[in-house]
Amino acid sequence: MSESLHAEIITIGTELLLGEIVDTNTTTIARALRGIGLDLFHTSTVGDNAERIAQAVREGLERSQVVITSGGLGPTVDDATREGIALALDVPTEFHPELWEHIQELFARYGRTPTQNNRRQALLPSGALPVHNPVGTAPAFIVETEGACVVALPGVPAELTTILQESILPYLRERLDLHHVILTRIVRTAGVGESFIDDGIQDLEHLKNPTVGLAAHAGRVDIRITAKAEDNKEALRMIAELEGTLRERLGDVIYGTDDESLESVVLRMLEQRAWRLVIVESGTAGALGQALASLKGFFCAGLILPHQTPETEVEEALHAAMQRHAAEIGLGLTLSPQDRQQQLVCRLVTPEINERLLRSFGGPPKNAPRWAASLGLNLIRKRLSQ
Fold first, then answer.
1. Domain co-membership, 55 together with 103
2. Which has fewest Cβ within 10 Å: 40, 174, 277, 344?
3. CB of 18 within 8 A of CB of 53?
4. How many CA atoms lie within 13 A of 288 on its CB side?
5. Position 1 in a domain
6. pLDDT given for residue 199 in this prediction
7. How many whole angstroms from its chain centre is CA 216?
8. Last residue of a domain, which of 176, 209, 240?
9. Do the strands 39-46 and 140-145 form a parallel or antiparallel pair, or are they unpaired?
10. The CATH number of the domain where 286 resides is what?
11. Hey, CA dihedral for 242, 247, 248, 249, is it positive or negative?
């Protein structure tokens, strides 16, 4: 397969532009393309307008060898994808009697009769290859052009997924002679900011294969490694080599990979020691307690004190709660405004230590509680790993 081959996705529907529904189809298609080793370079959304759909398809064909659309294949007037693609390719639409028969048969199964507007679903751009829809009335289709193709999928997620897996992916593998795989691993970090991570791995972020990207969250930063190779074994080798470099450079700010959460890592450490945890929070709206809700059996108590409770009172309440519940570890969080920032005091108590950590948060105040919870969890993780 040529390394230059790549795809793009166009989701179609005015309801998407208005924010009335969430676009899950792009995610579904993107993951499917990654699974067959086809790079995705561009995504876009357009409304239910034939001219704008045509413009998006034309632009897509200038950039990509595969353009996949989703939506706009229904029977109503505003389902304009068929007309838009025909306009983009400068071809008329043609009626397919066999598609109309399938639509009628599908309606008959439910004791219904299709209306005349359902006939629109049997109209396809001239030269299009119909793709059977086993779970709905909207047929998908493929239009092949010189060196490229346009794939039109229905917007209903269940229909799109079925057609994609059963028909489109096998078609793309054969047409494009795809033999590569694309694998991704997420390396998860906590306790430092995105700029700290970026400063330590800037050179790696310029690699072409595997590639490295960052995604920042409150108190956590994810590092995404993506490798493209002839097979899974080689892709995993490339990922493992780069992950080793990340671990050498970043050390213990890394807490896990892929589906591992900071909460699950802390749970595992508590299980290993058979320790019970209590927490006391002020100014966090209970964010830490919510994050620890899954730690049943080891997170034994949580207390939320009023906003701007003095740090000394939080510490006193923490010691009292640990004694009352016979807990081996306790964490207190005091989050309060100071100047234009939020100041966080973490108090961690175990049989061996009584530690105070002071940090400041300069981001949006609404994000401060989740940031504080992440820092508190990370403090537990780092001390239990010593």
1. yes
2. 174
3. no
4. 32
5. no
6. 94
7. 13
8. 176
9. unpaired
10. 3.90.950.20
11. positive
Cα 295 to Cα 47, 114, 275, 289, distances in angstroms: 45, 54, 11, 10
The stretches of 112-261 forming alpha helices (DSSP H) are 157-163, 169-176, 194-201, 232-250
Q: Is residue 294 part of a domain?
A: yes
Let me know: does 34 contact 40? Beta carbons within 8 Å: yes
Which CATH number characterizes residue 27's domain? 3.40.980.10
For residues 176 and 37, the answer to whether their CB atoms sit within 8 Å is: no
* Integer angstrom CA distances of residue 289 from 105, 277, 279: 55, 11, 7
* Residue recorded with tokens 């709905």: 136
Contact yes or no for 336/355 (Cβ under 8 A):
no
Sign of CA dihedral 268, 271, 275, 278: positive
Bond before 125 cis per omega within 30 degrees: no
Give CA–CA dist 31/7, Å, rounded: 12
Q: Which pLDDT value is given to residue 340? A: 83
Please give the model's pTM, rounded to 2 decimal places. 0.78
pLDDT in tens, 88-130: 999 999 999 999 998 888 888 888 888 888 899 999 999 999 9
Bridge-based pairing state of the strands 254-257 and 181-190: antiparallel
The domain boundary residue, chosen from 215, 239, 257? 257
